[in-house]
Fold this protein.
Amino acid sequence: MKKITIAIDGFSSTGKSTLAKQLATKLGYVYVDTGAMYRAVTYYMMQNGWVTDNALDKEAIVNALPNVKLHFQFNAELGFAEMYLNGVCVEQEIRTLEVSRFVSKIAEISEVRAKLVEQQQEMGKEKAIVMDGRDIGTVVFPDAELKLFMTASAETRAKRRFDELVEKGQHVTFAEVLQNVQERDYIDTNREDSPLVKASSAIEIDNSSMSKTEQFELVLQMVQDVV
Ligand code: C5P
C-alpha cells in the first residue's frame, strides 16, 4: 500500500483532531495537530506579556521566534503525541480558553506562519502523515493525495468545545465559548496570509449530524480509494 499525505482543514472544533487521530492509529501514520503549534507559540508570547487584551507587540514576538523550540513526543498511554515547548510538555496549558482567545491573533503574523509551516513540511516529507489545521491542503501540503475540509454549524462546534472544557474542569460559559469560536472563524477566514479556505481539490464533510464512527468509516473508504 503506498504511503500518502492526508490534509484535514476546517473551522475550529469540527472534530478534525478526533478524525485525524483515528486515521493515524488505523493506518500507522504520524498525526500532527498544527493548532497545538500555534497554541504553544501563543502561550510563550502570553507568558512574556507580548499579547494581552489591549495590545500585541509584533516586533517583540517576531524577535523572540528563534527562542521558541517546538516538538511533539508520543505518549503511549494517551495514544497521541503531546506538544512540548522548549523541552516542557504544555499539552494542558495550551488548551485553555485564554490561549484560544489570543491564538488567532498570533496566527495572523506571517513570520510565525513561515516558521511553523517550515517545521510542518519537514515533518511530512516522508509522507505517511495525517496533519490537521487551517492551511494544510492549501499551503503546507498542496500536493496531498487526500484533502478534507470539515464543517459543522457554529452552535454544534461550540457545544463540543464547551463539553470538552467542562470535562477538563475549566470554568467557562457556553456563551463565551460560542463567541470565541465565532471570533476565531472570522479572523482565520479573513486574515491576509494563508486564510482558511477550502482547497479546490478538498472533499467537504459537514458532520453536524454524523457520528464519529460514521465519519471515520466514510473517510477510511476515501483513503482506500486513493492508496
Ligand atoms: O486547531 P485549533 O483550534 O487548536 O487551532 C487554534 C488556532 O490556531 C486556530 O483558530 C488558528 O487561528 C490557528 N491555526 C492556524 N493554522 C493552522 C492551525 C491552527 O492559523 N494550520
